[in-house]
Write a structure and sequence with these properties.
CATH class: Mainly Beta
Shape: globular
CATH topology: Rieske Iron-sulfur Protein
Structural class: mainly beta
CATH architecture: 3-layer Sandwich
Radius of gyration: 16 Å
């Protein structure tokens, strides 16, 4: 497990915040990310869907850290405490030994995008995520 500190000081709802160099972040396992608003996020690579996922790093059942769990072959994050599984949208997909309880559990999810060899995150998942335009276009000439 890698622990990464995001050193940005503005709301992640209004912006896409870069938090890791995607060339150096392992696609194996789950990474714990500390966001500037004191939220902790579990980030993992979904091998099946070929994309990064991010959810709140706390299982709603017993508050275990999801980043200490494992990624299942289905691409879900599995809680290390009781084995509850969540997909990249934060939806509970499996509660071991219980078929009808999975609708009770959900975790917050985050929009994540890979661009310019960086991973960017925002918690603005209801609307279209903010655009990443910092490095796009022609360079500006300073006087």
């Amino acid at each position: 497990m890698n622990r990464i500190l995001c050193l940005c000081y503005y709301s992640i709802k209004a912006f896409m915040v870069p938090f890791a160099d995607s060339r150096h972040l392992s696609k194996q396992g789950i990474h714990k990310i500390d966001l500037p608003n004191s939220e902790e996020v579990a980030v993992w690579w979904d091998l099946k869907k070929q994309k990064w996922n991010a959810v709140q790093d706390m299982c709603p059942h017993r508050q275990a850290s999801l980043s200490k769990g494992v990624v299942t072959p289905s691409g879900y994050v599995k809680c290390p405490y009781h084995g509850i599984e969540f997909n990249g949208c934060g939806v509970c997909k499996l509660v071991p030994s219980s078929s009808g309880r999975k609708n009770r559990f959900r975790v917050d999810n985050y929009f994540i995008e890979e661009k310019y060899d960086l991973l960017w995150i925002s918690d603005n998942v209801e609307d279209l995520p903010p655009k990443i335009e910092v490095l796009e276009g022609e360079p500006v000439k300073l006087p």
